[in-house]
Amino acid sequence: MEVGNCTSEFLLLGLSDDPALQPILFGLFLSIYLVTVLGNLLIILAVISDFHLHTPMYFFLSNLSFIDICFISNTVPKMLVNIQAQRKDISYTECLTQAYFLNTFAGMENFLLTIMAYDRFVAICHPLNYTVIMNAQFCVLLVLLSWIIIFWVSLMDILLVKKLTFSPGTEIPQFFCGLAQLFKVATSDMLINNIILYVGTILLGVFPMTGILFSYFQIVSTLWKMSSSVGKYKAFSTCGSHLCVVSLFYGTGLGVYLSSSVTHSSLRTIIASMYTVVTPLLNPFIYSLRNKDVKGALGALLSRAAPGL
Protein backbone atom coordinates (compact mmCIF):
# COMPACT_ATOMS: atom_id res chain seq x y z
CA MET A 1 0.00 0.00 0.00
CA GLU A 2 1.27 3.49 -0.82
CA VAL A 3 0.38 7.00 0.27
CA GLY A 4 0.63 9.28 -2.74
CA ASN A 5 4.09 8.74 -4.15
CA CYS A 6 5.41 7.27 -0.91
CA THR A 7 5.36 3.98 0.90
CA SER A 8 3.00 3.74 3.89
CA GLU A 9 5.83 2.77 6.24
CA PHE A 10 9.59 2.59 6.65
CA LEU A 11 11.75 0.05 8.47
CA LEU A 12 14.18 1.38 11.07
CA LEU A 13 17.06 -1.10 11.19
CA GLY A 14 18.24 0.15 14.59
CA LEU A 15 21.55 -0.61 16.28
CA SER A 16 21.57 -4.41 16.03
CA ASP A 17 19.55 -7.38 14.79
CA ASP A 18 20.96 -9.71 17.46
CA PRO A 19 18.03 -10.83 19.69
CA ALA A 20 20.39 -11.32 22.64
CA LEU A 21 21.38 -7.63 22.53
CA GLN A 22 17.83 -6.25 22.47
CA PRO A 23 17.24 -6.37 26.28
CA ILE A 24 20.65 -4.77 26.85
CA LEU A 25 19.95 -2.00 24.33
CA PHE A 26 16.50 -1.43 25.84
CA GLY A 27 17.86 -1.10 29.37
CA LEU A 28 20.79 1.08 28.26
CA PHE A 29 18.75 3.55 26.22
CA LEU A 30 15.93 3.67 28.78
CA SER A 31 18.48 4.57 31.46
CA ILE A 32 20.10 7.19 29.24
CA TYR A 33 16.70 8.67 28.40
CA LEU A 34 15.56 8.91 32.03
CA VAL A 35 18.88 10.40 33.20
CA THR A 36 18.85 12.92 30.34
CA VAL A 37 15.30 14.07 31.03
CA LEU A 38 15.90 14.25 34.80
CA GLY A 39 19.23 16.06 34.45
CA ASN A 40 17.92 18.71 32.08
CA LEU A 41 14.70 19.09 34.06
CA LEU A 42 16.74 19.76 37.21
CA ILE A 43 18.69 22.46 35.35
CA ILE A 44 15.41 24.15 34.34
CA LEU A 45 13.97 23.94 37.87
CA ALA A 46 17.21 25.24 39.40
CA VAL A 47 17.22 28.28 37.11
CA ILE A 48 13.55 29.00 37.84
CA SER A 49 13.85 28.55 41.62
CA ASP A 50 17.03 30.58 42.26
CA PHE A 51 16.70 34.31 41.60
CA HIS A 52 20.51 34.57 41.39
CA LEU A 53 20.22 32.62 38.13
CA HIS A 54 17.67 34.96 36.60
CA THR A 55 20.23 36.30 34.12
CA PRO A 56 20.51 36.03 30.33
CA MET A 57 23.16 33.30 30.49
CA TYR A 58 20.97 30.99 32.59
CA PHE A 59 17.84 31.92 30.67
CA PHE A 60 19.53 30.59 27.55
CA LEU A 61 20.82 27.56 29.49
CA SER A 62 17.29 26.62 30.62
CA ASN A 63 16.11 26.90 27.01
CA LEU A 64 19.00 24.65 25.94
CA SER A 65 17.96 22.07 28.55
CA PHE A 66 14.36 22.20 27.32
CA ILE A 67 15.53 21.60 23.73
CA ASP A 68 17.71 18.69 24.84
CA ILE A 69 14.68 17.05 26.49
CA CYS A 70 12.67 17.50 23.30
CA PHE A 71 15.62 16.36 21.16
CA ILE A 72 16.05 12.98 22.85
CA SER A 73 12.29 12.50 23.36
CA ASN A 74 11.83 12.72 19.61
CA THR A 75 13.92 9.61 18.87
CA VAL A 76 14.52 7.30 21.84
CA PRO A 77 10.90 6.51 22.91
CA LYS A 78 10.05 5.18 19.43
CA MET A 79 13.21 3.09 19.49
CA LEU A 80 12.29 1.65 22.90
CA VAL A 81 8.76 0.82 21.72
CA ASN A 82 10.12 -0.97 18.65
CA ILE A 83 12.60 -2.98 20.72
CA GLN A 84 9.94 -3.96 23.25
CA ALA A 85 7.44 -4.91 20.52
CA GLN A 86 10.18 -6.59 18.44
CA ARG A 87 9.23 -4.47 15.45
CA LYS A 88 11.09 -2.13 13.12
CA ASP A 89 8.30 -0.31 11.31
CA ILE A 90 7.47 3.38 11.52
CA SER A 91 4.62 4.90 9.56
CA TYR A 92 5.20 7.42 6.80
CA THR A 93 3.54 10.19 8.84
CA GLU A 94 5.48 9.31 12.01
CA CYS A 95 8.75 9.25 10.07
CA LEU A 96 8.21 12.69 8.53
CA THR A 97 7.08 14.09 11.89
CA GLN A 98 10.18 12.72 13.57
CA ALA A 99 12.42 14.14 10.83
CA TYR A 100 10.72 17.53 11.11
CA PHE A 101 11.20 17.86 14.85
CA LEU A 102 14.71 16.39 14.76
CA ASN A 103 15.68 19.09 12.28
CA THR A 104 13.89 21.73 14.35
CA PHE A 105 15.50 20.86 17.68
CA ALA A 106 18.96 20.42 16.17
CA GLY A 107 18.62 23.81 14.47
CA MET A 108 17.42 25.44 17.69
CA GLU A 109 20.37 24.04 19.63
CA ASN A 110 22.61 25.44 16.91
CA PHE A 111 21.02 28.88 17.23
CA LEU A 112 21.08 28.82 21.04
CA LEU A 113 24.76 27.96 21.20
CA THR A 114 25.42 30.93 18.91
CA ILE A 115 23.28 33.23 21.07
CA MET A 116 25.08 32.01 24.20
CA ALA A 117 28.44 32.78 22.56
CA TYR A 118 27.21 36.29 21.76
CA ASP A 119 26.07 36.66 25.38
CA ARG A 120 29.57 35.79 26.64
CA PHE A 121 31.07 38.17 24.07
CA VAL A 122 28.97 41.08 25.36
CA ALA A 123 29.63 40.14 29.01
CA ILE A 124 33.42 40.05 28.59
CA CYS A 125 34.06 42.60 25.84
CA HIS A 126 31.37 45.15 26.81
CA PRO A 127 30.73 44.57 30.53
CA LEU A 128 29.54 48.12 31.26
CA ASN A 129 26.80 47.88 28.64
CA TYR A 130 25.90 44.24 29.31
CA THR A 131 22.62 44.83 31.17
CA VAL A 132 21.55 47.39 28.57
CA ILE A 133 22.32 45.22 25.54
CA MET A 134 21.21 41.86 26.96
CA ASN A 135 17.94 43.08 28.44
CA ALA A 136 15.05 40.69 29.05
CA GLN A 137 13.05 41.77 25.99
CA PHE A 138 16.03 41.33 23.68
CA CYS A 139 16.82 37.85 25.07
CA VAL A 140 13.23 36.67 24.61
CA LEU A 141 13.19 38.16 21.10
CA LEU A 142 16.36 36.27 20.12
CA VAL A 143 14.91 32.95 21.24
CA LEU A 144 11.51 33.65 19.67
CA LEU A 145 13.03 34.62 16.32
CA SER A 146 15.16 31.47 16.37
CA TRP A 147 12.06 29.31 16.87
CA ILE A 148 10.19 31.07 14.06
CA ILE A 149 13.09 30.73 11.60
CA ILE A 150 13.79 27.07 12.30
CA PHE A 151 10.09 26.12 12.27
CA TRP A 152 9.68 27.52 8.76
CA VAL A 153 12.98 26.11 7.47
CA SER A 154 12.11 22.65 8.77
CA LEU A 155 8.63 22.90 7.25
CA MET A 156 10.11 23.73 3.83
CA ASP A 157 12.44 20.71 4.10
CA ILE A 158 9.58 18.36 4.97
CA LEU A 159 7.46 19.69 2.09
CA LEU A 160 10.35 18.78 -0.22
CA VAL A 161 10.48 15.28 1.29
CA LYS A 162 6.74 14.82 0.65
CA LYS A 163 7.41 15.17 -3.07
CA LEU A 164 9.89 12.29 -3.07
CA THR A 165 9.14 8.70 -4.04
CA PHE A 166 10.03 5.74 -1.82
CA SER A 167 9.88 2.02 -2.48
CA PRO A 168 7.49 -0.03 -0.30
CA GLY A 169 9.15 -1.18 2.92
CA THR A 170 12.13 1.15 2.48
CA GLU A 171 14.86 0.40 5.03
CA ILE A 172 16.53 3.23 6.96
CA PRO A 173 19.88 2.18 8.49
CA GLN A 174 19.28 4.13 11.71
CA PHE A 175 17.02 4.01 14.76
CA PHE A 176 15.36 7.29 13.78
CA CYS A 177 14.17 9.18 10.72
CA GLY A 178 16.26 12.15 9.62
CA LEU A 179 16.23 14.31 6.52
CA ALA A 180 19.62 13.03 5.35
CA GLN A 181 18.49 9.41 5.73
CA LEU A 182 15.24 10.04 3.84
CA PHE A 183 17.07 11.78 1.01
CA LYS A 184 19.41 8.80 0.64
CA VAL A 185 16.71 6.15 0.43
CA ALA A 186 14.43 8.07 -1.96
CA THR A 187 14.07 6.64 -5.46
CA SER A 188 13.23 9.93 -7.21
CA ASP A 189 15.57 12.61 -8.56
CA MET A 190 17.40 14.35 -5.70
CA LEU A 191 19.18 17.23 -7.44
CA ILE A 192 16.89 20.05 -6.20
CA ASN A 193 16.65 18.54 -2.72
CA ASN A 194 20.41 18.13 -2.38
CA ILE A 195 21.02 21.71 -3.48
CA ILE A 196 18.52 23.02 -0.93
CA LEU A 197 19.95 20.73 1.76
CA TYR A 198 23.49 22.01 1.18
CA VAL A 199 22.34 25.64 1.10
CA GLY A 200 20.39 25.09 4.32
CA THR A 201 23.44 23.47 5.94
CA ILE A 202 25.54 26.48 5.06
CA LEU A 203 22.98 29.01 6.28
CA LEU A 204 22.02 27.19 9.48
CA GLY A 205 25.36 25.53 10.21
CA VAL A 206 28.28 27.49 8.86
CA PHE A 207 26.96 30.98 9.68
CA PRO A 208 26.16 30.22 13.34
CA MET A 209 29.51 28.46 13.72
CA THR A 210 31.21 31.50 12.20
CA GLY A 211 29.39 33.67 14.74
CA ILE A 212 30.66 31.48 17.59
CA LEU A 213 34.24 31.60 16.30
CA PHE A 214 34.05 35.38 15.85
CA SER A 215 32.67 35.84 19.38
CA TYR A 216 35.46 33.80 20.92
CA PHE A 217 38.08 35.51 18.81
CA GLN A 218 36.93 38.82 20.26
CA ILE A 219 36.81 37.32 23.77
CA VAL A 220 40.37 35.99 23.52
CA SER A 221 41.58 39.34 22.12
CA THR A 222 39.97 41.18 25.04
CA LEU A 223 41.37 38.77 27.64
CA TRP A 224 44.83 39.03 26.07
CA LYS A 225 44.83 42.76 26.83
CA MET A 226 43.96 42.22 30.50
CA SER A 227 46.88 42.69 32.89
CA SER A 228 45.44 40.60 35.73
CA SER A 229 45.81 36.82 35.32
CA VAL A 230 43.11 36.31 37.95
CA GLY A 231 40.74 38.50 35.95
CA LYS A 232 41.55 36.56 32.78
CA TYR A 233 40.83 33.22 34.44
CA LYS A 234 37.61 34.43 36.07
CA ALA A 235 36.32 35.92 32.82
CA PHE A 236 37.18 32.94 30.65
CA SER A 237 35.94 30.39 33.22
CA THR A 238 32.38 31.49 32.45
CA CYS A 239 32.96 30.28 28.88
CA GLY A 240 34.35 26.85 29.78
CA SER A 241 31.05 24.98 29.94
CA HIS A 242 29.78 26.60 26.76
CA LEU A 243 32.96 25.68 24.89
CA CYS A 244 32.63 22.05 26.02
CA VAL A 245 29.01 21.88 24.82
CA VAL A 246 29.89 23.56 21.51
CA SER A 247 32.75 21.12 20.93
CA LEU A 248 30.50 18.16 21.73
CA PHE A 249 27.61 19.34 19.56
CA TYR A 250 29.63 20.32 16.50
CA GLY A 251 32.09 17.46 16.91
CA THR A 252 29.38 14.78 16.85
CA GLY A 253 27.47 16.71 14.15
CA LEU A 254 30.58 16.74 11.95
CA GLY A 255 31.02 13.03 12.68
CA VAL A 256 27.50 12.33 11.42
CA TYR A 257 28.16 14.34 8.26
CA LEU A 258 31.50 12.65 7.54
CA SER A 259 30.13 9.20 8.36
CA SER A 260 27.62 9.51 5.52
CA SER A 261 30.40 8.39 3.18
CA VAL A 262 31.27 5.40 5.37
CA THR A 263 29.95 2.11 4.04
CA HIS A 264 29.81 0.35 7.41
CA SER A 265 26.24 0.95 8.58
CA SER A 266 26.88 0.05 12.24
CA LEU A 267 29.58 2.74 12.46
CA ARG A 268 27.19 5.33 11.02
CA THR A 269 24.54 4.32 13.55
CA ILE A 270 26.92 4.56 16.51
CA ILE A 271 28.07 8.04 15.47
CA ALA A 272 24.45 9.13 14.99
CA SER A 273 23.57 7.86 18.47
CA MET A 274 26.36 10.03 19.86
CA TYR A 275 24.76 13.05 18.18
CA THR A 276 21.13 12.38 19.11
CA VAL A 277 21.51 10.70 22.52
CA VAL A 278 24.86 11.36 24.19
CA THR A 279 24.95 15.12 23.55
CA PRO A 280 21.65 15.86 25.38
CA LEU A 281 22.79 13.48 28.16
CA LEU A 282 26.11 15.21 28.83
CA ASN A 283 25.02 18.85 28.54
CA PRO A 284 23.46 19.13 32.05
CA PHE A 285 26.45 17.39 33.63
CA ILE A 286 28.90 19.69 31.86
CA TYR A 287 27.11 22.79 33.14
CA SER A 288 26.44 21.48 36.66
CA LEU A 289 29.96 20.16 37.23
CA ARG A 290 31.77 23.24 35.91
CA ASN A 291 29.49 25.95 37.27
CA LYS A 292 29.42 26.80 40.99
CA ASP A 293 26.20 28.81 40.69
CA VAL A 294 24.34 25.91 39.05
CA LYS A 295 25.74 23.41 41.58
CA GLY A 296 24.64 25.68 44.43
CA ALA A 297 21.14 26.10 42.97
CA LEU A 298 20.82 22.36 42.38
CA GLY A 299 21.94 21.64 45.94
CA ALA A 300 19.39 24.08 47.35
CA LEU A 301 16.65 22.65 45.12
CA LEU A 302 17.38 19.06 46.16
CA SER A 303 17.62 19.98 49.86
CA ARG A 304 14.18 21.62 49.70
CA ALA A 305 12.75 18.61 47.90
CA ALA A 306 14.34 16.03 50.24
CA PRO A 307 12.03 16.60 53.28
CA GLY A 308 9.00 16.02 51.09
CA LEU A 309 10.28 12.66 49.79
Automatic annotation (TrEMBL):
Pfam families: 7tm_4 (PF13853)
Protein name per UniProt: Olfactory receptor
Molecular function via GO: G protein-coupled receptor activity; olfactory receptor activity
Similarity-based family: Belongs to the G-protein coupled receptor 1 family.
Source species of the chain: Sciurus carolinensis (Eastern gray squirrel)
Domain of life: Eukaryota
GO terms for cellular component: plasma membrane
Keywords: Cell membrane, G-protein coupled receptor, Membrane, Olfaction, Receptor, Sensory transduction, Transducer, Transmembrane, Transmembrane helix
Membrane topology, as annotated: Multi-pass membrane protein
Location in or out of the cell: Cell membrane
